[in-house]
Amino acid sequence: MARGLLGAPPILGGMGLAILELDGVSKKFGALTVAEQISFAVGEGEALGIIGPNGAGKSTLFNLITGNIPADSGSIRFLGSDVTRTPPMARCLSGMGRTFQIPQPFEKLTVFENLLVAGAFGSRRREAEVSDRCAEILVDTGLIDQANVLAGSLSLLQRKRLELARALATEPKLLLLDEIAGGLTEGECRSLVATIRAIHARGVAVIWIEHVLHALNSVVERLLVLHFGKVIGIGKPEDIMASRDVREIYLGIEI
Ligand SMILES: Nc1ncnc2c1ncn2[C@@H]1O[C@H](COP(=O)(O)OP(=O)(O)OP(=O)(O)O)[C@@H](O)[C@H]1O
């Protein structure tokens, strides 16, 4: 299990049981090691931020957690069950939802139709059964006025909101957000953060990869730092941001 920056054991943010546990997860693409002995746990209802330079292996880590790529070694437990060899769809059905760095909605479907597809597919229920829940999610994510708009004509912020809404439609207990604040204006970023905080406040555990640090640090209870596929720090955001390694490696500040 990864130690904190000061060598302390990982804190689960006082949230009790772990919803997700990685133990020694490793992955290589040919000669390139993208995940090396990654171990950490996320508490139920906790929000964990993941930072690291470009190419550090952050999105790859999400793909390992969701099962989109198989781990070479190590184990992944979700809600107490070993899911290391479980296919992505089954992980989604058991409560793992994710957004992708580049939103890819069904452009020729409306916003509401996009949600119906995600809700029905992500819960193996009929569209009529998920329709009310999808309408609620549109309200929660600030998209209700765009319900009948084609996804292809949305602004970047609205596409990010739709990406979030599609993940929520699968009714996640753990929500994985991949650079959802990237490319937004300051005001847009603030409004998206407010939405994410509200989702987290309802008890959904969040793992959020983000380069927009002020947005990330306003939500998460802990930060994990990846560098060349290795966890080089995990702990409270203020401790991580003050760490020499992180300042040198990630923020590019010479000490
Ligand atoms: N399917 C793949 N095959 C081979 N190499 C890959 C594959 N996917 C990612 N990589 C490489 O693995 C490394 C980690 O990529 P990854 O996208 O996980 O980084 P990241 O930390 O998310 O970067 P960014 O912040 O730029 O999104 C990179 O060198 C990338 O080129």
UniProtKB/TrEMBL annotation:
Domain ABC transporter: residue ranges: 20-253
InterPro entries the UniProt entry points to: AAA+_ATPase (IPR003593), ABC_AA/LPS_Transport (IPR051120), ABC_transporter-like_ATP-bd (IPR003439), P-loop_NTPase (IPR027417)
One GO biological process term: D-alanine transmembrane transport
GO molecular function per UniProt: ATP binding; ATP hydrolysis activity; L-isoleucine transmembrane transporter activity; L-phenylalanine transmembrane transporter activity; L-valine transmembrane transporter activity
Alphabetic keyword roster: ATP-binding, Nucleotide-binding, Transport
Family matches, as PROSITE patterns: ABC_TRANSPORTER_2
Protein name according to UniProt: ATP-binding ABC transporter component
Species of provenance: Rhizobium johnstonii (strain DSM 114642 / LMG 32736 / 3841)
